[in-house]
Fold each of these.
Amino acid sequence: MYPLQQSNELENQIPYTPRQPDNILLHDLITFESCSNPLHHHPAAINSPGKKTQQIAESKEKKKNQDNEFKLKRIIHRDIERQRRQEMANLYSSLRSLLPLEYIKGKRAISDHMHEAVNYINCLQKKIGELRERRESLMKKTGSLSSTTSSGNGSAADSCLPNCLSVTVNPCRDGVEILISSGPKEEKFSLSRVLKKLLDEGQNVVSCVSTKANEITVHKILSEVPEDWTSIHVMSLQQKLTNAINLDSNSE
């Protein structure tokens, strides 16, 4: 009788808890897992290894493109530099071909060639100035001869013909320069006799140019002479040419 009574008392002491459905427990478990695991808050983080691999591949591709672009720039720069050096070499070669041999003889450096080119240009400018002054002087002489000839009559002009001829011989770089000015009756003056006289003296006539202004004709003759010629030879040649011209005029 006593054991049965104790069993009933135990049943009265244990509280009654109603049984919950299984789906409620499963929902609570999922909720707990999601709260405890931060990956459930970021679904994209599940694919993070693949995304990292893609980023690495993109970085490598970008670096490869940069390397290719750098190599292309180097190739273009090398070609431009090669073309520039070739053009400069052609210009230096053209410059050397324009300079006389005595200016570049024994000089190989480009800086020396440039310096000698400047000297050559200055020398040419100086010669041009000298020739300009000589031309102006000749023009003044021919102008005075023209005024003297036009002031006289025909017989006076014929009588002063020998005096209207002037011969000037000047030394130049490669020989001598001969200037002969004649009056209006130039048909009595034979230029061939002067050229023949120069050949007899052993000279080589390089050029002969005639210019006429105000009825005055100026003949310019360039002739090569031996290297041992002095001012005495130049004066002697001038006198010989003058005598040859006067002899030719008197014979006419």
Note: Confidence is low (pLDDT under 50) at residues 1-7, 20-26, 38-46, 149-163.
Amino acid sequence: MEGGWGINIIFCFFFVCFWVSFFLSIVTQTGLWIICHRILLLHGCWMQPLLGNVSDYHHFL
């Protein structure tokens, strides 16, 4: 059983790596990574005041 589990874990690892690399190649070729990066930056800018300065945020309301 342990040998079978090791093979399954290795297979799943390579399967995940294959899909991640496949997805990244599509994203970089189509330029979607720029959009995703900007969305992440926007979310980071919005989440920081909401999480860090909750009291200051309530003053705006």
Note: The chain has two domains: 1-30, 31-61.
Amino acid sequence: LAGMVDAASYMVVAPSIIFYVLDNGGTKEQYGFILSAFSFASFCSKPFIGWWSDERGFRVPYLASLAVASSGGLLYLLASSLPPGRAAVGAILASRLLGGVGAANSALGYAYVARVVPHGAQTTTNSLLSAVRMTGLAAGPGVNALLGWVDVDVGSNGWKIDPLNSVGVVLVATNLLAMAFVWALLEEPEKGGSDDESGIESGGGDEEVEKVEVGAEVGATELVEEATPSIMDFLRTVASADILVPFLSIFTFNANFQLIETAFPPAANDGIGWGPVQTSVALGSMSVVIVVTMMAVSYLSSKAGVSDVSLITSGHALSAGAYTALYFLWARGAQHWHFWLPLMLSSSMFPVMAAPTRSFFTIAVDGKPVLGKLQGRMQAYLSMGASVAGFVTPGLVARVCLRSPEE
């Protein structure tokens, strides 16, 4: 639920934030910078929240991150009550920075799975977790579309809750709901988690320490050394293809997803005159496509025996075709389906790449003794790869794509 709220909270902002920024005296360049700031804040916070979960478990970091995200939603709502220009745009920026810090908890979900789920079931569980997050990403724009009819006067100074700033209300409500569920339902795993399968007790076990101190047995010494690999061993292992390829894959499809959700609202507005409601409906309709595709991926993986590598490869190849159609069909004065069809084709490939990439990575990490005890941290590092795509792509779109031919 926390993962779905995190994903939906991000995408509920996406369809209308450009109009919110411009309406409050901002520019397109500031729009791109604000979108990038969210992912950059998430990127910077993930190492800390990963360390915090190792020290205090999962409940406290989850609750703290959701509280920060809630404060960001409240600031997003109140930004429009400030004077247009530097004050209002600065408040929007600050709200997205807080939202990004809160969104760093996305790494906690995969780390929790790595800690509590037996190794043999991690692929299936990670696929389900990815599916839930993708559903949240797809559902966000649909929620935004429902806000098109919001018009509530607040006080006597003329400020009101409208379709643009009401997004902040949704952010606060969903994060508070997630906090309630985490507080009531999340169970802290025993230290050591899924490593119990192999008979290794939490922290390496007092018995192992006693063996080293008393008998200096070779087997026990090797086990301790294996649990604390050297930096060079770690770097050599991380540099292997089965670890680096998932990083490249998750960066690529997240960058493409960011490009589409950042560029689609202004492109559709310029090309066919669509506003926030129409773009929200179009982006929200991705949810149906993503759910259907995820069901197909689940069948291909579990029933048809298609490997993760085959799914990842075919997903990237078919995505290239969809992006080519996007390049040729998105134009001023085009028909509506010229914008909608490439959007649906490209979004249908995200589930084909997301769950298999995470599953392939989990299995690769489990198969390497040097990384076996670092599954949680490695999942956080992989999530950071997605964050890099998140804060690099919007700025690129704002500077390169959102320009007229004369510019």
Note: The domain at 2-401 is CATH 1.20.1250.20 (Growth Hormone; Chain: A;).
Amino acid sequence: MNTRRSCPAWVLGFLWCALTPVHAWADALPDPDAQVLAGRALYRGDKQFAQASRLQGVAMPGAACRQCHGPRGEARSEAGIQVPSIQWASLMQGRDARAGYRSAQGVLRAIVHGEGRQGRALQAPMPQFRLTAQEQASLLAYLKVIGTDAEPVPGVSARSVSVVSILPLSGPQADAGRRVREAMAARFDAINALGGVFGRRIDWRALDSASSAARASKVARAALQDSRSVPFALVGSLLPDPDEALRLSLKQRGVPMVATLGVAQREPAQPELTYLLPSLEAQLRDLAAEMDRRCVVKAGDEPILVLHPPHAHSIDTMREALPRSRLQVVEATGVWAPGAEPRTAATGPVIALLAQAQMAQLRAQLSERLKASSGPGCLGSLAVLSGRPPPDRSGRYAEVVALPMPPVIQDGAQPDGAALWSLLGDTAARVFAEVLARSGRALDVERFSQALDGLRHFQPVPGLSVSFGPQQRHGFDVTYLWRENAHEPLHTNP
């Protein structure tokens, strides 16, 4: 075999607040489960073999069975080579006019000595593994159940699937956390009352992060290491930016973070991470493209001035997100102070990444400058940082506001902060349940991830569409508010 201190305030017309080594848990389980799980860790590469495998005399440290045989041991093609099934039923059956393996010892000889069916030598790229007695027993125990309903999946049993949410249930953001918790609990209770998903209850619990990003990651890591109740997934957590230790733990254990709430700084590259709301990076990128389409042509080829808050990570995100190949960007040398003139003449558009109070003063200043026929003709901002523009204003500049989610209430009405958190919590629960149903009865992380990546235009509530894919790790699309002048109403442009 080959191998989230207090969080910042994100505003969307109302207060928006978001929290910005493998442990041998199998050893605590009773036999034979511990042996099967130990074999699973060896097979998947979560635990290294005591000695490196060898291929034609060359050591191959880090080789894992999953690399060639896949997550379920099914027959497949790998790098142009046909890899046979190693599920136990297939091993015991004949193939290519050759009898099946007669016993577990025959399978072991293939793994250790490269001796295949009827004593024929196995060819490259099949290495030979120098297994300890414990590794032999563990690997054989796992091969007997891989690809079957008997295969153990952390957090999954015949009657339940265990999930956890990390939420601020105490501290400054406790109200938001409680709203999310209540909505998710109500949704999962309703699903369980109807029999669950494929007969499995969703066994859900919320853990308190106390409104601290650092504590949120720590609590999540502890949940993953709890041998008594290992979760299948983290769902709807207010944890937009996991720390590196949590990212590593998620990767090693293959635990997905599903429909995470809050706004991350950057788009996640890690496949285990998915969000409901697009990152600041995605919002900035789409805002710049929308301003290029609507504003830059009118303003000529003049540069875009960027006014930003005093957070180094936000500045770095802005630099990476703005498409400098298409737009000439002039970055402010420091934080814009209310009442101060922006650096440079600033006769082109402005992207303002400011707090809501600063935005009100900036809008007033821009209106005054336009009376003298000088100043930016177009202003862009992110609603999660700067809020929505006021419904009534004077001035002639155009304005583009990027929103992190589609409109969910018709006729321009917007939910208040409490209703928003309830909506997000309910949406996260609905998304998880939908993906769970699409994964099928034989549930594992691979099938779940495939179903999540295939979720397109799912509407948990009318008018609110959620889509995920291998290249799209946030469920909501960025939308826009556009106003041409003071007499036009706001328009939403997907």
Note: The first helix runs from residue 33 to 44.
